[in-house]
Amino acid sequence: MGALFWSMDPDLGSGGFEEFSAFFFGTQVGKIGFLRCGLLLLLVGYRAFRIYRRPQQMSRSSSLPLIESGIVLIQLVLLSWLSHAAAVVGPSSGLQLGNDILHLTGVALWPGALVPLWLFLKQSVPASVKRDALLRFSNVALFVAPVVGATGLLSGYFRVHSVAPLITTPYGRYVLFKAACFFVLIGLGAANRFRVIPGLIASSEEVRSPAERWGKLQRNILIEQLIFVLVLAAVARLVQLPPPEG
Amino acid sequence: MNWLDWILTGARFVSLTGSILLASIFGFRLLIGGSHTGAAGSELFAERLTWVLGLAA
Lengths: 246, 57
Prior knowledge:
Largest sheet of chain A: none
Shape of chain A: globular
Distance between the termini of chain B: 24 Å
Number of helices of chain A: 10
Number of domains of chain A: 2
Number of strands of chain A: 0
Oligomer: heterodimer
Radius of gyration of chain B: 15 Å
Strand content of chain A: under 5%
């Protein structure tokens, strides 16, 4: 929220409370940022309440995880309204915003979910449980990865328009870096999907040195996560840069 | 890049990472929640992890 506010103008607010008020309640960026912040504070507040209260004192409601998931999805979608795609005016504005939302949601499902998968695999649970979760994740990634690639390509076209600015502008070079990281992630994902996972799915009698295979898988996922962090850093910089003219 | 750019980029990075990982964790929980793996995964979604990511976002 602070970044959003100060990125508008570092001197904003020097004119008094009215300027803050005009920003948060008078501009689309301010309103969406304010709403997103409110949703996140609601979630954090509820979680803090659950930490404070003993679990047995909390009433068990099957709808709460779904409500929480809904809030989390909305705050993610609202992030697109704070991106370059939301600033587009014209007939393709809806398409660009929709594409950005699909890209962001896909990123949360595929490279993003590598982090909880990695944490999950490090837990001391039976190998059959790990295999089940791994297979589910892999099946989802198989469909989501092409969506992330296609929406990323489309987004790159919308922002950069041609090949030359990819080399000649800082914005284009960050886009190229993102694309290169995507292909490395695809390569590692394919190696896991077609070489490592089949060996783990087979019955334990057929698998030679399963511990070694699990270790290899976790190492690959760790590398993928590090690449994903680099992509996130590049995106954080991209948001600060103006797209090439055109 | 001046110091303000670095601070803004850092803040964007923290917010973006928190936001995406929050969605990833809830998505992953839904993915494994429909089976016996849900119980095993409950430790993963400790209150504090969600709390920290929510604040970061």
